Amino acid sequence: MTGKLEGRKAVITGAGSGMGRAIAVRFAAEGAAVAALDLDRAAAEATASTIAQAGGSAHAVQVDVSNGASVGAAIAQSVSALGGIDVLANIAGILDGYAPILDTSEELWDRILGVDLKGVFLVTKAALPAMLEGGGGTIVNMASIAGFVARGGGVAYTSAKHGVIGLTKQMAADYGLQGVRVNAICPGAVETAMTKRILEEGELAVIESINAVPAGRHAQPEEIANLALFLANDESSFVHGAAYVIDGGWTVV
Ligand SMILES: NC(=O)c1ccc[n+]([C@@H]2O[C@H](COP(=O)([O-])OP(=O)(O)OC[C@H]3O[C@@H](n4cnc5c(N)ncnc54)[C@H](O)[C@@H]3O)[C@@H](O)[C@H]2O)c1
């Protein structure tokens, strides 16, 4: 590895599984000290231990990104463990089972928006003061192709991911001059626990849509981590408020 994040202090949510885990492992391999945050404490610890075994530096922190008090405590713990924050990757998220509006209860709407959109708001708001104190940094938000088009989820998920792109743009406009770059990643189908669940339980039309990828396959989490690394390090120094589609061509057909 090339040390593209040497000396940086990185907080990653959703680090216990899938893309969050791949991003935490990759950032650590590139020299970052990592706080691996997840709702699932054991999963966060497993990621931290994988990083430590490879010679990297990682701290596992339990958090519910949809809960302000939990986020406040987790970010305080991360700042104290890392000594600051230079990089934030908001990756934690949940899917809504591709439910259309008539099948979306108020509870489901609140749960999906709570994790997928409010979670990004809460974690970013809590982490930003430490980032500004250190002179700025980079934020990578996990949106989705569902942040651009329909058919990437149900109404709650699609609304939340469109919101993540809006939040990303507004943050870039508000904090660019203070040295904070904020960008979003918009993957198509990636081979993770989330995709596995929908491929096992979803309706045939949903499964066919997920599988209709010009690349002829789904992404590996590590391929998404490559893009996260680009947006987190100085190679992307003029990229502000962008939403990068990485979908194997899913949205071109
Ligand atoms: N898998 C895909 O095809 C795909 C495509 C586009 C975008 N995404 C997005 O990528 C992100 C990661 O998804 P993944 O596929 O790696 O899923 P995953 O299920 O493998 O991992 C998600 C992680 O988030 C954690 N999490 C869930 N709720 C949380 C909460 N309230 N607080 C803290 N952590 C919480 C889970 O414990 C899990 O470790 C999500 O935001 C998802 O919406 C996924």
Automatic annotation (TrEMBL):
Keywords: Oxidoreductase. Coiled coil: none annotated. SUPFAM superfamilies: NAD(P)-binding Rossmann-fold domains. One of its GO terms (molecular function) is oxidoreductase activity. PROSITE patterns: ADH_SHORT. Pfam families: adh_short_C2. PANTHER family: DEHYDROGENASES, SHORT CHAIN (PTHR24321), ESTRADIOL 17-BETA-DEHYDROGENASE 8-RELATED (PTHR24321:SF8). Belongs to the short-chain dehydrogenases/reductases (SDR) family. This is 3-oxoacyl-[acyl-carrier protein] reductase. It comes from Herbiconiux ginsengi.
